[in-house]
């Protein structure tokens, strides 16, 4: 029986990770879950916190994560930090799966030195990025943002609705 620590948040729910682990590997594992408060609370940045300088961005305090992970061999996370100092406190840890395009919340050199394999999910958010890009293109070319901001201020800017400014509708 593997001991697995799953650390999700309010965007990547730990229960979803758990359900996928159980679906793929069965339910014969000791799985513990932690939900972090992101995106309701902002990320930390490694350059701003002593001892976390190998990390770019993350959510969670090192001591709290170490206590939660404990003797787990495997960790699945979205944003939890893993710094050099943390690896020295987690000698049983062998594997970390990060559900991000880049493992910027992991000190990769420290992980290699500790013998911990780290995998991530490049391209995981490709669809979301494409959708956002299309939405931004439509909002800017159709002057939606400008019109919305003007209306919020109580200003009518009729020129924002002229066909020669906004272009044709997509279906035409």
Descriptive terms for the model:
16% strand, 7 helices, two-stranded antiparallel ribbon, five-stranded parallel sheet, alpha/beta, Rossmann fold, 172 residues
Task: Compose a concise summary of this entry.
The protein has 2 domains: 3-119, NAD(P)-binding Rossmann-like Domain (Rossmann fold); 126-166, no CATH class.
Give the topology:
Layout lengths: L2 E6 L5 H12 L4 E6 L8 E2 L11 E2 L3 H8 L4 E4 L6 H5 L6 E4 L9 H7 L2 E3 L6 H16 L2 H9 L10 H4 L6
Parallel strand pairs: 1-2, 1-5, 5-6, 6-7
Antiparallel strand pairs: 3-4
Low-confidence stretches: none
Secondary structure category: alpha/beta
Could you give the count of β-strands? 7
- So how many helices? 7
Cα distance, first to last residue?
A: 60 Å
Helix content: 25-40%
What's the gyration radius in Å? 22 Å
Give the CATH topology of the largest domain.
Rossmann fold
Shape: elongated
Specify the CATH homologous superfamily of the largest domain.
Answer: NAD(P)-binding Rossmann-like Domain
Tell me the name of the CATH class of the largest domain: Alpha Beta
Arithmetic mean of pLDDT = 92
Give your account of this protein's structure.
The N and C termini lie far apart (60 Å). This protein has a 5-stranded parallel sheet with strand order 2-1-5-6-7, sandwiched between helices. The protein contains 7 helices and 7 strands; from the N terminus they run βαβββαβαβαβααα. The relative contact order is 0.12. The chain has 2 domains: 117 residues, Rossmann fold, CATH 3.40.50; 41 residues, no CATH class.
């Amino acid at each position: 029986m593997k001991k697995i620590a799953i650390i999700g948040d309010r965007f990547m729910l730990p229960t979803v990770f758990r359900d996928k682990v159980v679906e793929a590997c069965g339910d014969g594992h000791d799985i513990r879950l932690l939900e972090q408060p992101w995106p309701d609370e902002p990320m930390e940045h490694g350059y701003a916190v002593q001892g976390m300088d190998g990390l770019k961005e993350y959510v969670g305090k090192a001591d709290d994560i170490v206590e939660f992970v404990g003797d787990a061999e495997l960790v699945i996370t979205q944003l939890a930090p893993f710094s050099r100092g943390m690896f020295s406190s987690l000698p049983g840890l062998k594997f970390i799966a990060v559900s991000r395009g880049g493992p910027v919340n992991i000190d990769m050199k420290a992980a290699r030195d500790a013998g911990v394999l780290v995998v991530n999910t490049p391209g995981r958010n490709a669809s979301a990025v494409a959708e956002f890009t299309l939405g931004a293109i439509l909002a800017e070319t159709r002057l939606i943002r400008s019109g919305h901001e003007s209306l919020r201020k109580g200003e009518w800017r009729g020129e924002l609705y002229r066909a020669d400014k906004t272009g044709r509708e997509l279906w035409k």
